[in-house]
């Protein structure tokens, strides 16, 4: 792969040292005009701490995940959610917020998205079997579209405290954050907006793999599975993207928000579309945590999918409330 260039700290340093020396000690006739030196003429140092062959391996994983996530066009599954709250630094089960139900979704592209609008449109329907609640959203990435939420059982109406519980329970960002992210990384002729870059430029810039996970990160965060770290965020917040150095799967996204709040999105147990390229996790975990030790606050929301079917026909009527 020719899109990765080796670091050139020494060369850049020598050039700048020569410029400084000549500017300070040369006679006016021999003085060097700084304007004659362009940064475009100098090889910039790479952010990556990986050797070239490891960079190529990590990038091949990224490309594969980009293609397999964006090959997902629709899906359905049974789902079981479990919620745990952080109490005095420990996770404690919260059965009132846990539920079982179904998931249905359809992914399509948006032509000529504007500003930071996602190139992806995702319609989703979630049903909570426990309380007979239904959640429908015409596009989870469009903040101007209000989700519809209703109850089939009058015994559990969606209002007051129950309404807050219902709205909290449908964490759509957990399922589809990677599709939005991948669609905004580099241009491929299908998933584009005004901020996407050509593939080669992306992997020479913000898409370069940074490093391996440390031994502590590997053991304590990823259960012994080594990772490649990317920091290819196009948003206004800092984010870490971890890809398994063994399987290549996108394993986790860590988003650092104001006031020390960290949201971690974990993806595990991928399923492969039969006779296709699309792959989709069967286990999702969203952890929201602020602080550390006994004073930490937050929660963990885990979803297990069963009977997953990818790229199937789902009628548009499933995303409309009648």
Characterise the protein shown here.
With 322 residues, the chain is an alpha+beta fold. It folds into two domains: 1-45, no CATH class; 64-319, Clam (outer membrane lipoprotein receptor (LolB), chain A). The chain is built from six helices and 13 strands. It has helices at 9-25, 52-70, 160-169, 172-183, 199-204, 215-220, and strands spanning 74-87, 90-93, 100-109, 120-128, 133-137, 148-151, 211-212, 227-230, 238-244, 250-256, 261-272, 279-290, 297-310. Strands 1, 2, 3, 4, 5, 6, 7, 8, 9, 10, 11, 12 and 13 form a 13-stranded antiparallel sheet that branches. Strand 1 (74-87) and strand 2 (90-93) form a beta hairpin. Helix 2 crosses helix 4 (172-183). The longest helix is centred in the N-terminal third of the chain and has 19 residues, at 52-70. The relative contact order is 0.16. The model is unreliable at 1-32 (pLDDT under 50).
Which features does this protein show?
322 residues; alpha+beta; outer membrane lipoprotein receptor (LolB), chain A; 2 domains; 6 helices; disordered N terminus
Secondary structure layout:
Elements: H1 9-25, H2 52-70, E1 74-87, E2 90-93, E3 100-109, E4 120-128, E5 133-137, E6 148-151, H3 160-169, H4 172-183, H5 199-204, E7 211-212, H6 215-220, E8 227-230, E9 238-244, E10 250-256, E11 261-272, E12 279-290, E13 297-310
Antiparallel strand pairs: 1-2, 1-3, 1-13, 3-4, 4-5, 5-6, 7-8, 8-9, 9-10, 10-11, 11-12, 12-13
């Amino acid at each position: 792969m020719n899109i990765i260039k080796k670091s050139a700290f020494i060369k850049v340093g020598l050039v700048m040292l020569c410029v400084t020396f000549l500017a300070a000690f040369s006679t006016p006739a021999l003085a060097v005009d700084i304007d004659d030196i362009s940064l475009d003429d100098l090889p910039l140092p790479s952010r990556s701490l990986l050797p070239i062959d490891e960079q190529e391996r990590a990038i091949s994983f990224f490309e594969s995940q980009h293609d397999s996530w964006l090959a997902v066009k629709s899906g359905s599954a049974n789902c079981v959610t479990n919620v745990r709250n952080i109490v005095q630094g420990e996770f404690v089960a919260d059965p009132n917020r846990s539920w079982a139900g179904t998931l249905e979704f359809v992914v399509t592209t948006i032509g000529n998205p504007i500003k930071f609008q996602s190139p992806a449109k995702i319609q989703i329907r979630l049903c909570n079997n426990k309380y007979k609640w239904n959640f429908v959203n015409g596009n989870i990435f469009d903040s101007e579209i209000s989700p519809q939420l209703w109850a089939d059982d009058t015994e559990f109406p969606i209002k007051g405290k129950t309404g807050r519980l219902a709205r909290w329970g449908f964490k759509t960002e957990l399922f589809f954050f990677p599709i939005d992210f991948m669609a905004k990384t580099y241009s491929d002729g299908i998933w584009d907006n005004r901020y996407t870059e050509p593939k080669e430029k992306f992997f020479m810039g913000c898409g370069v793999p940074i490093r391996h996970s440390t031994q502590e990160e590997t053991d304590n965060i990823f259960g012994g599975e080594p990772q490649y770290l990317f920091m290819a965020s196009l948003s206004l917040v800092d984010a870490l993207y971890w890809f398994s150095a063994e399987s290549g799967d996108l394993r986790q996204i860590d988003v650092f928000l104001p006031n020390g709040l960290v949201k971690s999105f974990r993806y595990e147990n991928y399923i492969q579309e039969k006779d296709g390229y699309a792959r989709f996790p069967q286990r999702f975990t969203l952890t929201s945590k602020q602080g550390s030790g006994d004073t930490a606050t937050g929660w963990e929301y885990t979803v297990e999918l069963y009977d997953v079917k990818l790229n199937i026909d789902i009628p548009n009527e499933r995303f409309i409330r009648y």
